[in-house]
Design brief:
739 residues; 7-stranded antiparallel beta sheet; alpha+beta; flat; Immunoglobulin-like; 11-stranded mixed beta sheet
């Protein structure tokens, strides 16, 4: 017999109640400290020292740090907190004692610089697994460096404590635990600061390989970023303390009460009991390590408000298909951490992921992600270490973490510790000018000049002509702080891109050996492929135009001409363009007899638009440059599937030639209405998809396709459902026109 989730929840609640009755709660007679405090720790200099913990409600607690004392009474929840004035860094070890019913004594405490080191596997990778691991471990004898490794843990709700303990940096402690020891990138960062600043350094390693950035992000971060509003709503629904959760739970309880009444009545009448309502997953909060806030709850929240100087971050591989959305995710992470710590805009330095074969059909897609990482430097008090010269295209975990840590430390030395003569950035493009058939790119952050890292001609520069062709390899010549670019056949260059490929290991650097990161500049020529290839389009008016790189929960068209178009109209046309960064663009143009007179319902079928159509279409004209698509005018056998709903494989509408076992041109919309979303036009007579735009709320992981998705993998669906490939395209554009 099937047991509903609600039944399971009720049984669990009853069990908790029974346990509470049978086994009275044990009194917390001892004063306690969170594990972020311990012997051998480092306290952040020049910031107030906040010490907190727990005791019985109302218990008197005495706290002594060095020569100063504080007394405090635990509140009704058994929580207490005291604050000591800021101190200067020093090598003299201090003691901390906390007294109540018992006494906690901590010693060998230093004052210096404290940094949080976090991210996924490239930050997690231990010293023993990185370059020259054995030698580095043997030499890791630094009494002034202290290490705290946070044990891996994800949780549904914020935790007050974690597992871990401070250790003096020794060969034994640096090699202990985790993936071959303490974070290599974190350790080499701290080692560099310790050597250059001459003060104690405390490093907190909170890392987990393969994890997404949103799992590390607190609710406060999502709340502050409009583009992540839908994710914030999900976080609120899963938080028992949130108003949205309580409102939804009240609805569930009301429905359950109605069911209970109906069930009792059915039992009395000896008839079938109606199906018991299930408890919605959306109210359960994070349910695995990748869910939003899960790692913040388990590994970061227990550290707050332990004073930090700042944080370093190495993550992105698990989000690399999201393109520009990653900038918004970084805003949420950085802003969220700063909000919960209440320390202002503390420094946040991060690593741009290295060249590697990240998969996908278009190797240039990673360029948009690198660009998004670069754009995150618009966040106040941040900086990015570029490592495209020390990666390994055969290994997603580059071994040279010494240089990764050093480059992060350069940012800290320059920006945080005011060592202005320390060069922390490689060359960054500043401006470009067109000089006849040449294009000149001027760079900033050149140090004493530009150079080729390997002495070979500069690589991975590409330019594009104003009139024809795509991006082509350019010959690059250094001229002072500029690079001059030319290419055969490019008479009128108008745009440049650099290292715009997942395997790009370019060689432009400045005088101190720091590399230039991927960038693009200029206006890539807009060649209207529709005007050139579809004569009938000249009879139509543009209704909507959308750069699909801007997909997300809120659809805002780049062009919205609803107010300029008068009704009635007799025809509607859809044009989808998808291209790689080489300049090649695939397109499909489908026009058909108007199926609605509502302009609102002709665009992407969001819940707000009210669009929901599954029907045959008439007067279908198809134009495309994609091999295999049946083109022509007045074609029969067309149908469209426009809805914001989830959908299943069942061919409930009996669309000819459709399968009920796969996602194709005969699917069935189901609840919820605000679901996955489908915007598809098909030629069911030809058994092919013409174009698909699904799951637009996912941004860079939306589904995009022209033609039927190739069946080289049985898991691939003809209508591109679950393709998650929007981030693979550098050109992605949707236009809607009417006649």
């Amino acid at each position: 017999m099937r047991v509903s989730k609600l039944s399971e929840v009720f049984r669990a609640a009853v069990f908790v109640l029974l346990v509470g009755v049978a086994f009275p709660r044990i009194a917390r007679s001892e004063v306690r400290l969170p594990k972020v405090f311990g012997s051998h720790m480092v306290l952040q200099q020049e910031k107030p020292v906040i010490i907190w913990g727990w005791a019985d409600p109302g218990a008197e607690v005495s706290v002594r740090l060095a020569t100063e004392s504080r007394q405090v009474k635990a509140n009704e929840k058994g929580e207490w907190k005291v604050e000591f004035p800021a101190m200067k860094a020093g090598d003299v070890a201090l003691k901390l004692s906390v007294s109540g019913p018992n006494t906690i004594a901590l010693d060998d405490i230093l004052v210096g610089e404290v940094w949080l080191c976090s991210g996924q596997s490239n930050m997690e990778m231990g010293v023993g697994a990185a370059l020259n691991g054995k030698q580095e471990i043997a030499a890791a004898n630094h009494p002034g460096i202290r290490l705290l490794k946070v044990e891996k843990r994800w949780t549904a709700e914020p935790q007050a404590d974690m597992t871990g303990s401070w250790q003096v940096c020794t060969p034994a402690s640096i090699a202990a635990g985790g993936w071959a020891g303490f974070s290599a990138a974190g350790y080499y960062f701290g080692r560099e600061l310790h050597a250059k600043l001459g003060v104690p350094v405390g490093l907190i390693d909170a890392t987990w390989g393969g994890t997404r950035i949103e799992s590390w992000t607190p609710p406060e971060g999502f709340a502050a970023v409009p583009d992540l509003a839908k994710e914030y709503e999900k976080v609120q629904l899963g938080d028992p303390r949130a108003r949205l959760h309580q409102e939804r739970l009240a609805q569930i309880l009301d429905g359950t009460g109605q069911w209970l009444a109906a069930a009792r009545k059915a039992m009395e009448q000896q008839v079938a009991v109606p199906v018991m309502p299930t408890y919605p997953d959306e109210l359960l909060g994070p349910r695995d390590v990748q869910h939003a806030t899960a790692l913040f709850n388990g590994m970061i929240h227990p550290l707050v408000p332990f004073a930090l100087r700042g944080a370093i971050w190495y993550q992105g591989e698990s989000n690399s298909s999201e393109g520009r959305l990653y900038t918004e995710r970084m805003k949420a992470l950085v802003g969220g951490w700063r909000e919960v710590w209440h320390e202002g805009d503390f420094p946040f330095y991060y690593v741009q992921i290295a060249p590697y074969n990240y998969g996908g059909n278009h190797p240039e897609f990673i360029g948009e992600f690198w660009e998004a990482q670069n754009m995150a430097q618009s966040i106040e008090n941040t900086g990015m270490a570029v490592i495209n010269d020390i990666g390994n295209v055969q290994d997603i975990h580059p071994a040279n973490k010494q240089e990764v840590g050093r480059r992060l430390a350069l940012w800290a030395l320059n920006r945080t510790y005011a060592r202005r003569k320390v060069v922390c950035s490689g060359p960054t493009w500043d401006a470009f000018t067109i000089e006849g058939a040449a294009l000149r790119v001027k760079f900033a952050n050149t140090g004493d000049g530009l150079a080729s890292r390997d002495g070979k001609p500069l690589s991975w520069f590409e330019i594009i002509d104003a009139d024809e062709g795509g991006f082509v390899k350019a010959t690059a010549r250094i001229d002072g702080t500029s690079v001059v670019l030319t290419a055969p056949g490019v008479k009128h260059p108008v745009a440049v891109r650099y290292a715009w490929h997942m395997l790009a290991e370019p060689n432009l650097m400045n005088s101190v050996g720091l590399p230039a990161g991927a960038f693009r500049a200029g206006d890539v020529p807009h060649r209207d492929i529709i005007a050139i290839n579809v004569p009938e389009s000249r009879e139509y008016q543009l209704l909507y135009d959308l750069d699909l790189a801007k997909l997300g929960p809120n659809i805002i068209y780049d062009v919205d001409n609803r107010s300029r178009i008068s009704k009635p109209f007799t025809r509607v046309a859809y044009c989808l363009e998808l291209g790689d960064a080489s300049g090649r663009v695939d397109f499909v143009y489908v026009s058909l007899d108007a199926f609605t007179q509502s302009l609102d319902k002709l665009g992407i079928p969001t819940v707000a638009s009210g669009a929901r159509f599954q029907q045959s279409i008439t007067g279908m004209n198809v134009f495309s440059n994609v091999k295999g698509i049946v083109t022509g005018t007045n074609l029969a056998g067309g149908n469209l599937e426009f809805w914001p709903n989830n959908y299943g494989q069942a061919n409930a509408a009996n669309v000819p030639n459709a399968s009920a076992q796969t996602y194709d041109f005969g699917d069935e919309p189901v609840d919820p209405a605000d679901g996955y979303g489908s915007m598809q036009i098909h030629n069911h007579d030809a058994r092919q998809t013409l174009f698909a735009l699904n799951h637009w709320v996912a941004g860079g992981k939306a589904d995009l396709g022209i033609g039927t998705q190739p069946a080289d993998n049985p898991a691939k669906n003809p209508d591109w459902t679950f393709a998650e490939n929007a981030g693979n395209y550098s050109v992605k554009r949707l236009r809607v026109l009417v006649r």
